[in-house]
Amino acid sequence: MKKPRPEDKTMALKVNEGIEQPAAVNREAVSHLARKRKSLLDAAAYVEGILKGDRVLLSQAITLVESSLPSHQQIAQEIIQACLPHSSKAVRIGITGVPGAGKSTFIEALGMHLVNNGHKLAVLTIDPSSQISKGSILGDKTRMEQLTTHPSAYIRPSASAGTLGGVARKTREAIVLCEASGFDTVFVETVGVGQSETAVHSMVDFFLLILIGGAGDELQGIKRGIMEMADGIVVNKADGDNIVRAERARAECENAIHLFPPPASGVPTKVLSCSALTGSNIPEVWQMIENFIQIVKSNGFFQHKRNNQLVQTMLDAISESLQHSFFQHPSVSAQLSVMEHLVRNRERSSYIAASQLLEVWFNALRGNNEPEKQG
Ligand code: GDP
Q: How far is the CA of 103 from the centre of ligand 1 (A)?
């Protein structure tokens, strides 16, 4: 078919001149950002506010921690450095369980028990769903209504997009800021649907698994590894008609736990039943956590674990930076899709392709350094 030309008046088909494409950059958004940036305080002002317990400045600082803008990151790192000497004092508790296990109801019940007993509680969440679905399993419910309005509680929903490593890092930094702001207890909640449990386990002192009582096959959906990670387990929804079934589930769980190797903490893992809805056994759950913390503080495990976590944080930060540097390098990204194609077509083995790409990167790094050496 003959291609129509705009000037060809005899053609039935006509090519319109088209409309002007909008600029790739939204100028309004940029100027809004610039306005916002101008309103940024300096790091010292945030630090002063955080140390005084100012919630607004704490929230703004956590937003800076979560931001990927280099200018925000720079100020966030200054704030974190200044807050570090004031952190480490809180007890950090990880809470996991499948969706529907009753985590938010439980956090509300245990949280209210704590704030009513003079504690200051911060609740942070790691929600891997927000990364996958761009929605959030945790975020779209009305959650923890009483706690949200309590003056001694601070609830911060999940850091959104990013790799799990990135989200974990932001949560660790948010913990530092919350502790500097005077919270003596930090809950880190995660949905038990992926690898986020391991990330949360690596940043807390006590890891609590919430199971649902009475479902009949309680243990099936929970990976053995997660049960082994738990310092304590609660079977929730032990109320009404469900009490007997919940109790049976608790006993089954206790039997299963006995088959695991003894925990490194030196404290046998306890299994309790409770009802987040009625509040029954909630004080006992807190007692279990307090006892654990007391024992591990005296047997040295508390400090040992925190020291290991600091080292792990360093190793994670290195891995993350290396990955970023590798994948963002122009020489690598130029070759990556070629290699992917070759691997997919079985024309090159995955391992050879990987080592060739790494070689490209190493060479590029050497190349970058050479002028310096010669100069
Ligand atoms: P999450 O997805 O793990 O955060 O679970 P939710 O806290 O949103 O609870 C899921 C459902 O279980 C809600 O309808 C709660 O009201 C209910 N639920 C939570 N805890 C209990 C409990 O102790 N007993 C009973 N009967 N229902 C509960």
A: 7
Q: Say what the pLDDT of residue 199 is.
A: 83
Q: Phi and psi (nearest 5°) for 246? A: -65, -40
Which residues, other chains included, contact 295 with Cβ-Cβ below 8 Å and sequence gap of 6+?
A: 265, 266, 267
In degrees rounded to 5, what are phi and psi of residue 120? -115, 120
Is ligand 1 within 6 A of the CB of residue 275? Answer: yes
- Neighbouring CB atoms inside 10 A of 158's CB total 24
Q: Which of 217, 208, 323, 361 is nearest to 272 (CA)?
A: 208
Coil, strand or helix: which one is 273? strand
Instruction: Note the pTM of the prediction, 2 decimals.
Output: 0.81
Element spanning 189, H or E: strand 185-191
Gap between the Cα atoms of 341 and 328, Å rounded: 19
Residue 99 Cβ contacting ligand 1 at under 6 Å: yes
Q: What is the mean pLDDT of residues 149-178?
A: 83
Contact 99, 132 (CB under 8 A): no
Per-residue pLDDT tens digits for 240-259: 999 998 999 899 889 888 88
DSSP 161: S
pLDDT value at residue 367: 82
The three-class DSSP label of residue 338 is: helix
